[in-house]
Write a structure and sequence with these properties.
By secondary structure, the protein is mainly alpha-helical. The chain has 19 helices and no strands.
């Protein structure tokens, strides 16, 4: 009977240790000398593993039964796969099926044969992918230790990402290669629709680290001659965006600080309802652990690297940040920094920055200013205005509640409640 091989033909012809599917592969590679010839052998092995004929992807639909069965197989029999099929040329569908049927016959609790047959194609596919990923993980880690041909290593790692082969390890290898070859490959990966969203996100994170020296250098440059996008009093704030524009808790309740707080809130105050809420400065996936973080967090990372203080939020740096975010492939960022769409994008972000700055002022006034007379009635009036227009209403209302012993605060809260303007958690 003809065996149905599950790994590429070129991979099945590889010599040891490149054809090894057992746990002995890792120590064998650790002992293997790093030379130009052994590196070339590793690259040829990766090319062999990537030589599978492209096939139309078949959606893998996991039922609860599939997950339950696969979890049992993984824990109870997965380790035996390499014992039964220790090399790539021995890894066959028949070998997996025979092993699973033998296990199912003695498993406790029992595994009905019809149940196994119903899930067989799905489970064989996943076990094959896992065996190939585990093999590639070790080869990529070995290549990372002492690369000679950095361009060749980068090209092989990039192909792994394109084909979904140990992609996480491949991106790590490109990160370790750094500039120029790793960085250039990562810049292609983030734009490659064949790569998964998670792989592109990981590649962006790696790129941000590699490109950080450039960000830092730009942040050190003066904004003199540039066109500011925030009001003068806001540009004078000494608190960094990296710290969320937070005012220090130990800041004294001096006339200077109270005057500054009032001036900043007045400068950032909305003149009309805000069409879109300003997001909370910190994002947490409380309700759904599998929820992906929103793309704006990546945009913010780039922007605050280039503009760490309010006085650096300028038209020129916003254009640079937009161009950089587009280069990094961050979803939702306009590709043309000179387009009308990009202009709206920048206005949108300037509004958010104003909101985060104002929110921190409200937090300081509420949590750390104990003398009500210093904030009455101007802070209550401004908080009511912010809440009514939906501009950081949660922070504005929180300040009113922190000073709820003041009649002016209670009156403002009552009016907002009557108008349905209180944030949902505060109603």
């Amino acid at each position: 009977m003809t065996a149905h091989h599950l790994l590429p033909a070129d991979m099945r012809r590889l010599p040891s240790p490149w054809n090894d599917l057992t746990s002995e592969r890792k120590p064998a590679l650790e002992e293997l000398a790093h030379t130009e010839s052994t590196e070339q052998a590793a690259l040829e092995a990766l090319t062999a593993a990537l030589s599978r004929s492209p096939t139309s992807p078949v959606p893998r639909v996991w039922s609860d039964e599939s997950w339950e069965l696969f979890d049992r197989i993984r824990h109870e029999v997965g380790y035996q796969l390499a014992q039964v099929m220790p090399t790539a040329d021995q890894f066959t569908r028949e070998g997996i099926v025979d092993l699973l049927r033998e296990w199912a016959g003695t498993a406790q609790p029992p595994v009905p044969s019809w149940w196994l047959d119903d899930q067989l194609d799905l489970i064989v596919g996943v076990l094959t992918d896992q065996a190939l990923d585990g093999w590639a993980h070790d080869v990529l880690r070995w290549l990372q230790q002492k690369p000679y041909d950095e361009a060749g290593v980068a090209a092989a790692a990039e192909r792994c990402v394109e084909n979904g082969l140990a992609s996480h390890d491949a991106v790590n290898l490109l990160h370790a290669l750094g500039t120029p070859h790793g960085e250039q490959a990562l810049l292609r990966v983030v734009q490659d629709v064949r790569a998964s969203d998670s792989n592109r996100s990981q590649a962006r994170n790696a790129l941000m680290w590699l490109r950080r020296p450039g960000y830092d250098a730009r942040a050190q440059q003066s904004a003199q001659g540039e066109h500011p996008l925030l009001p003068p009093v806001v540009r004078e704030l000494p608190y960094s965006w990296g710290a969320g524009f937070q005012w220090p808790a130990e800041l004294p309740e001096s006339d200077e600080n109270i005057t500054r707080a009032r001036a900043v809130l007045q400068a950032c105050a909305p003149s009309q309802p805000t069409p879109e809420p300003v997001p909370a400065p910190s994002w947490h996936s409380y309700e759904d652990e599998d929820e992906e973080q929103p793309a704006w967090l990546e945009v913010r990372t780039v922007m605050r690297e280039l503009m760490p203080y309010a006085n650096l939020v300028t038209e020129e740096r916003m254009t640079e940040a937009t161009r950089e975010c587009a280069l990094l492939g961050i979803p939702g960022v306009p590709g043309d920094p000179d387009s009308e769409e990009a202009e709206r994008f920048v206005q949108h972000w300037v509004t958010w920055i104003r909101g985060w700055i104002a929110g921190e002022v409200f937090t300081w006034l509420g949590m750390y200013v104990d003398d009500d007379t210093l904030v009455t009635p101007w802070a209550m009036e401004l908080a009511e205005r912010y809440a009514r227009f939906g501009f950081v209403p949660d922070r504005a209302v929180s300040m009113l509640r922190w000073h709820d012993t003041v009649p002016r605060s209670r009156e403002a809260l009552a009016r907002l409640a009557a108008e349905g303007k209180l944030p949902s958690e505060g109603r």
